[in-house]
Amino acid sequence: MIFPPDFTWGVATSSYQIEGSPLADGAGLSNWHRFALESGRILNDDHGETACDHYRRSHDDVALIKELGVDAYRFSFNWARIQPHGKGAVNETGLDFYRRLVDSLLEHGIRPFATLHHWDLPAILDDHGGWLNRDTAYRFADFTEIMTRALDGQIQDWCTFNEPWVIMHEGYVNGAHPPGLRDLAHAPTVAHNLLRAHAEAVRAYRANGSHRIGIVVNIEPKYAASDSLDDLEAQARAESYMNRLFIDPIITGEWPQPLVEFMGEDAWREVLKESTTPLREPIDWLGVNYYSRNVVGHKPGGFLNTTSVRQPGTHTEMNWEVFPQGLTDTLLWLSERTQGLPLYVTENGAAFDDPPVIGGRVADAERVDYLHEHLHAAAQAIEQGVNLRGYFAWSLLDNFEWQFGYSKRFGLVHVDPATQKRTLKDSAHAYASICRG
Ligand code: FCB
Questions:
Q1: C or N terminus of the chain, fewer CB within 10 Å?
Q2: Which of ligand 1's atoms lies nearest the C-alpha of 351?
Q3: How many domains does the chain have?
Q4: pTM of model > 0.85
Q5: Where in the sequence is the domain holding 415, given as residue range(s)?
């Protein structure tokens, strides 16, 4: 495996998944904390009250990141800590937490990669319609301006959204995330408002910041189950919905046609009457979160008239197929679509049923293999000309995995939920030796 000498090696987390203390020091309630406290929403009724207690242990966690030998740390802000009411006055104590985190990263020589929004929205904005409300885009631009003014001196790599598709699909179409709505008809409006918010934030960034800003999308490459026309069309629909809905408007200014056709122009009328030009605000880099692939067939009555065809072979605890070739394919596909824009793998990793900690060791051999195979796949994409600048393992810590609570462990570092003790798994040691070259 050969990586360029200036390749960035990192680990990633997000605010609600690790911080805990969600209401400390004047923070407002977030949509995620409210949702998690509603009985029946999350497996075992888990929630982020304590999570990895990172809010109180961030200093030690930065030392842990340093121990891994990585160059960079990708994390996100809980907006409600900074603007408890989703707009207006800044809660300086909340902002101070991130100031201290960033200072500590820099003291340790670790480059901060900041995600402005990794799904935790001030709950009050959800009360006003969340991403169905056009106004939320302007609120997000204001928040971006606040964060940029406060931290652009220290942070050079910014990202607007983590996986806007998941916000739209799980929040407004599938209902597994807040606000828990279930209607495909929401997709065009929510996608449009998220893209508007992204573009407004990039403009706010350009006016106040002077480094780099991008966006992170999740890509699950879609392969047709057969060469039949029906299956090929099913593949195109699935790809348009999940993989093209956010990239195409940003890069080419076009909504993916197979999806517009499938849902019908009526469903898209409000969105289509607006120009996509303002959505095409140039970005400096694109992040991709890759976990698995999807083999798609035609099935009348299925979601988008498609069905997923389960493949033999290894699956993770998330029931996601282990398919490293999909990462090479994804990077090549993105590279072509974005004409050589700098790319980062901003998340990649796996949940396995890890063996317990024995004698200070966690022998997570499956995760070690997963990491090696996927890094090999990333290196192959670079060999084939992809402008890949870095890789972030998901995740630093075992953490709160959204609707699955604490049941799925993605960490390179094991976290004992009772004591909060951190133990480096074998995968952490393996990753550290790769990062150190
Ligand atoms: C991604 C999310 C991240 C984590 C991983 C497993 O979709 O961005 O927060 O949950 O999946």
A1: C
A2: 6
A3: 1
A4: yes
A5: 8-435
